[in-house]
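Trying the structure run again after the queue cleared.
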Amino acid sequence: MAALTATAVADEAGREELRGTARGGLVNLAGAAVSGLGGLAVTWLAAVAMSPAEAGAFFAATSVFLLAGATARLGTPTGLVYWVARLHKSGRDGAVGSVLRLGLWPAAIASMAAALALLLTAPMFARPDLVRLIALFLPASVALEALLAATRGYRLMGPTVMIDKLGRTAAQLIGLAAIALAGTASALTITFAWVLPYLPAAFAAGWYLLRRHRRSRPDPGFPDRVSARAFWGFTAPRAAAGVAQLGLQRLDIIMVAALAGLGPAAVYTVATRFVIVGQMASGAVGQSVQPRAAAAMAAGEPASARALYQASTAWIVALTWPVYLAVGLLADWYLRLFGQDYVGGDARLVVWILVPAMMLSSACGVVDSMLAMAGKTSWQLIDVSISLVVNIGLNLALIPSMGVVGAAIAWSAAVLVNNLVPLAQLWRTFGLHPFGALTRRALLAAGLGFGVLPLAAMPLGPLWTSAALAAAGLAWGVALLRYRTRI
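Done. Tokens:
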């Protein structure tokens, strides 16, 4: 009887974790929808307002900015989520202050050092003026990511959504749209409008975290703290892994610009921007899953972690596969949105190469986050380093002869390695995998509705393909609404 009661309690706890993840995930998904569409809109505005060469300079500069920020963060966002979530779960809120000091100060110093390095090396880049500009705002970007990560450790998704996904994205779009309408668009003005919102967003994130942290001041009579060795033992591998992870997403744009030119870099950026939708969906769900997965693994509750992983993967597949398949089937229509300069055989091939790779990535779910929250950041570092080596090696080998198509092949190969290797590790070591019953149904339904049926309609013409996709989208929306309680 006692065993049955314990099982019932555990099941209810697992269901509550899923409900909490769903609530946080929905908040994040709403923000991710705005942020993802905002990212596409930024790419569209830059593409239509400037020449391919100027647009390529903007895309390359923002990629340098994001890579430098990932380096300067030192892995602290994941470390802060991990430690704040664990301390909060165990009732040790008084020790959170030590974690914040261990994470925020080194990241602040590293961000200023990275900004200085960019200022000194700016003449080495094709557009030194853009590099100097982004260097000024780099510390604000690093602070924003770290401060919001700490709030997510408290299971608070609202600040990330309101400040970063909604506020910063809206400010960027308003600035870029104003410049485009005024007819003053250039790589310099567009970059300034894109980077400026990081500064007020960082101040807002700091204000919110300060308010939340004041509620959990440590008791002077009972000091509690996390040691630097414990914090950085977890976080240090994630620092390098974070840089490599973003390198997989952005380094190819920089390499295309360097090896093929700014014009091809713009074409490649436009052709690959549909990937933002999947990345935003995975990121939104992953941010909600991370603190709960960390708490579940710390409490020795693998069943709860497995349920979180499988349910979140079903959500990601349901959100991303329809987009990926639609873009693949209507590649020319998608590219034409950005202007005739971006419609061509190479751009179309880039889309077709990346679509299946990104679909597989979605089917693996938040495998990277689950491995990190299981405490295996050193494994994660090795996995993503191997993927980055594959990406760089293939880029160097293929871009000179194949251009943007070679870059797409390199990225796809790296994506496969970066998902399948950690999935095998997670499955073998912890028995965690994403292929629950709900995930399998989502994979089958999305593949049939947005893949098989529109493909069958293709011989009848593009309008029939579009009609099949529209009908599938309507049915998909009705199904998600009908079974919203289960998913």
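Residues 1-10 have pLDDT under 50 and may be disordered. Worth checking whether this holds up in the mutant runs.
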